[in-house]
Task: inverse folding
């Protein structure tokens, strides 16, 4: 079973994992009202319990800056999703504030039949597919273990402020990993979970998207 985006975001927020502010809209009018409430620029995403990889079917449109762009995006997205995923249930669209740019990382979960829940950490966005620079730990995970898995990846120098860049907030990433570990103890039916991207700043983090699969 897949949870809706709203259900998943609410669960993750209970464990201290911050998300970019968003509003679910079930009509074009609600989408317009949501965009104006959050203030432009915003992101539009399809809301469906049956769609995990939104990008593949035109289910994400970034950097919308006006009511006219919201109207075009809404009609284009609904049409694309219905054509490419005709069996999928559509609950509406999610209007989300456009997060500031930062370092994109991924925090993922898989349920291993032998070891139980395993948490993965690495660079996020397209980089996780290209470089496969990730680390793994079996839950439960404490703060020191989380720090070790962050610093273990080859790209950890980016997070630590390579070439004079301001260091990323590693403590904030640790809070996400340990919060996820606690969540898994209370929700053992989770099979897979990805937070990708989690955008890391010099102070704080913001989760932009997530998906989950449960028993």
Result:
């Amino acid at each position: 079973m897949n949870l809706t985006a709203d259900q998943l975001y609410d669960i993750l927020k209970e464990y201290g994992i911050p998300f970019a502010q968003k509003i679910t809209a079930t009509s074009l009018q609600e989408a317009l009202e949501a965009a104006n409430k959050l203030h432009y620029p915003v992101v539009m995403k399809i809301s469906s319990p049956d769609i995990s990889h939104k990008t593949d079917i035109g289910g994400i449109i970034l950097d919308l800056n006006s009511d006219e762009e919201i109207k075009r995006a809404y009609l284009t997205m609904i049409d694309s999703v219905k054509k490419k995923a005709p069996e999928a249930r559509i609950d509406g669209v999610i209007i989300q504030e456009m997060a500031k740019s930062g370092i994109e990382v991924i925090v993922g979960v898989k349920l291993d039949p032998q070891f139980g829940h395993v948490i993965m950490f690495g660079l996020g966005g397209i980089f996780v597919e290209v470089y496969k620079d990730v680390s793994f730990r079996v839950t439960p995970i404490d703060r020191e273990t989380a720090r070790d898995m962050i610093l273990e990846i080859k790209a950890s120098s980016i997070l630590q402020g390579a070439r004079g860049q301001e260091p990323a907030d590693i403590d904030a990433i640790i809070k996400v990993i340990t919060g996820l570990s606690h969540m898994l103890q209370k929700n053992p039916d989770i099979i897979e979970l990805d937070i990708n991207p989690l955008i890391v700043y010099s102070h704080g983090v913001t989760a932009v998207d997530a998906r989950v699969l449960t028993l």
